[in-house]
């Protein structure tokens, strides 16, 4: 009898705790909203907020429906609670622009704990102020240099042709595009960053990187055997290898310091650019070697995630739109005939001036939404277009909501590369932000366009193909469910 009474007492206290907790949660919620006047919206259930609905929409063909439903109820800027964080969501392109441009003094990056753990305290994602501007400027200048453009165009061509050559022996087999394009993108990016050409070193780095990147979206638990723990160990092994290369390069530069200070010595890769960026006259001290090694690893992420996905989805969208594929083939065959007849090598300008090809790339980036949003945190109260974002609150600028809004893009769910004939393929404005914006605008945006253009050129002028049915998965990252299986043929007219 006593035991039964104790069990009922336990149940009673659990109920009391839940009720009291619920009461204080809603009281605190009301107090915060009243104090700050935050945008309308719902924080959902205690602790979990609206996370389940957010994730569920991510597994549908229209993940933006989570944003659209709340936008219709509360307006273009609203509050919610997802992934353990109360957050203000903006689906307004003007508000997004203001958030992206007001960087450092008003907004700072804010990312899930697992990402912060993996990237470390000196991560590009988290650095602010003068250091962020310095590093961003170094990489931008390097990637825009004429020497790199000439060299990297050839490197991309070699990587693309090497991969496509293996397809000629697979005409009876299924080729999984998403796997194949990774063979192109990762070696190219690693060469740009650190000039690794050894097959063994590249394979080691690729294996460890695959293990490392799995932890970007996981529970922030570092116990042995957990996903985060394994990813951190993989990063340690990568870091050791990359830092050794950075140290060797530093010693070589010190031995030839006079030569390296000459302005006519070209920069070979990102490591070289970061090591050489010091100026005693301007009190700009050399960047620490640990800092350089860690950020080189972080800059590899586009070669593994965003670029392969964009290239794969370009093939997917073209397969579903024969008219667009035919026009793209005609444009690229014309370029191939010109280069064959003149015996000249392809140049960066050749690929970037393929107007319709660049339109296809723009439309792929708009429709795919590989980078769907960025997270920022307000370091002080700020009001944008009548929307108050209080100090300490996170704000999510939703690129997907803008890209898929018929107010800005007619028939947004339709693959329509011709829409860019009016605005220009490379235009960057409030309503088209696949590479972000503001001070953190992706420095590799032109390199990304080049790589996709080279791939599409050599693919469409070498093969025809038939794609099997496949669907796009949007959560936790954008990818093809079956990795986009296709069968290729030497018949260029076959779709």
UniProtKB/TrEMBL annotation:
Q: For heme, which residues are the binding ones?
A: 442
Which pathway?
A: Plant hormone biosynthesis; brassinosteroid biosynthesis; Hormone biosynthesis; Steroid biosynthesis
The record's Pfam families line, in alphabetical order, gives: p450
**GO MF term list:** 22alpha-hydroxysteroid 23-monooxygenase activity; heme binding; iron ion binding; oxidoreductase activity, acting on paired donors, with incorporation or reduction of molecular oxygen, NAD(P)H as one donor, and incorporation of one atom of oxygen
Q: EC class of this enzyme?
A: oxidoreductase
Question: Coiled coil: which residue ranges?
Answer: none
Task: Give GO terms for biological process.
Answer: brassinosteroid biosynthetic process; brassinosteroid homeostasis; leaf development; petal development; stamen development; sterol metabolic process
Do the record's keywords include Glycoprotein?
no
Give the transmembrane ranges: 6-26
Which cofactors does it use? heme
Q: Which GO terms describe its cellular component?
A: endoplasmic reticulum membrane
What is the reaction catalyzed? 3-epi-6-deoxocathasterone + reduced [NADPH--hemoprotein reductase] + O2 = 6-deoxotyphasterol + oxidized [NADPH--hemoprotein reductase] + H2O + H(+); (22S,24R)-22-hydroxy-5alpha-ergostan-3-one + reduced [NADPH--hemoprotein reductase] + O2 = 3-dehydro-6-deoxoteasterone + oxidized [NADPH--hemoprotein reductase] + H2O + H(+)
**Protein keywords:** Brassinosteroid biosynthesis, Heme, Iron, Lipid biosynthesis, Lipid metabolism, Membrane, Metal-binding, Monooxygenase, Oxidoreductase, Steroid biosynthesis, Transmembrane, Transmembrane helix
Q: Which family does it belong to?
A: Belongs to the cytochrome P450 family.
- Protein name per the record: 22alpha-hydroxysteroid 23-monooxygenase
The lineage is: Eukaryota, Viridiplantae, Streptophyta, Embryophyta, Tracheophyta
């Amino acid at each position: 009898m006593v035991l039964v009474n104790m069990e009922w007492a336990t149940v009673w206290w659990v109920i009391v705790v839940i009720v009291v907790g619920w009461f204080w949660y809603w009281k605190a919620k009301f107090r915060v909203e009243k104090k700050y006047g935050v945008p309308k919206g719902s924080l959902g259930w205690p602790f979990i907020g609206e996370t389940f609905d957010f994730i569920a929409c991510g597994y549908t063909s229209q993940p933006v429906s989570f944003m659209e439903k709340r936008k219709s109820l509360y307006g273009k800027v609203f509050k919610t609670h997802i992934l353990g964080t109360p957050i203000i969501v903006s689906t307004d392109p003007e508000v997004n622009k203001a958030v992206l441009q007001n960087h450092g003094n008003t907004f700072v990056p804010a990312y899930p704990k697992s990402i912060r753990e993996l990237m470390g305290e000196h991560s590009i994602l988290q650095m602010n102020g003068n250091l962020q501007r310095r590093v961003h400027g170094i990489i931008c200048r390097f990637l825009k240099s004429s020497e790199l453009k000439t060299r990297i165009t050839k490197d991309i061509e070699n990587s693309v042709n090497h991969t496509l050559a293996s397809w000629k022996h697979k005409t009876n087999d299924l080729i999984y595009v998403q796997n194949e394009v990774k063979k192109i993108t990762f070696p190219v990016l690693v060469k740009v960053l650190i000039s690794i050409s050894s097959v063994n070193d590249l394979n080691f780095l690729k294996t460890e990187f695959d293990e490392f990147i799995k932890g970007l979206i996981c529970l922030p638990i570092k116990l042995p055997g957990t996903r985060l723990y394994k990813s951190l160990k993989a990063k340690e092994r990568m870091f050791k290898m990359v830092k050794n290369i950075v140290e060797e390069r530093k010693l070589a530069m010190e031995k030839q310091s006079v030569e390296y200070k000459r302005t006519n010595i070209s920069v070979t890769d990102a490591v070289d650019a970061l090591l050489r960026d010091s100026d005693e006259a301007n009190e700009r001290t050399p960047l620490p070697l640990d800092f350089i090694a860690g950020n080189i690893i972080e800059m590899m992420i586009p070669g593994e995630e965003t670029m392969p996905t964009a290239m794969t989805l370009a093939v997917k969208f073209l397969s579903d739109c024969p008219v667009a594929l035919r026009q793209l083939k005609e444009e690229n065959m014309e370029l191939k005939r010109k280069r064959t007849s003149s015996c000249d090598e392809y140049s960066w300008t050749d690929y970037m001036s393929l107007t319709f090809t660049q339109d296809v790339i723009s439309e792929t980036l708009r429709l795919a939404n590989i980078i769907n949003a960025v997270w920022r945190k307000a370091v002080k109260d700020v009001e944008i277009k009548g929307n108050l974002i209080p100090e300490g609150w996170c704000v999510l600028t939703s690129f997907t909501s803008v890209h898929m809004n018929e107010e800005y893009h007619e028939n947004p769910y339709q693959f329509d590369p011709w829409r860019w004939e009016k605005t220009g393929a490379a235009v960057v404005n409030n309503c088209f932000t696949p590479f972000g914006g503001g001070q953190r605008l992706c420095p590799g945006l032109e390199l990304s366009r080049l790589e996709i253009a080279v791939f599409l050129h050599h693919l469409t002028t070498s093969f025809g193909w038939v794609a099997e049915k496949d669907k796009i998965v949007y959560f936790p990252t954008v990818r093809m469910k079956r990795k986009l299986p296709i069968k290729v043929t030497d018949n260029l007219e076959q779709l």
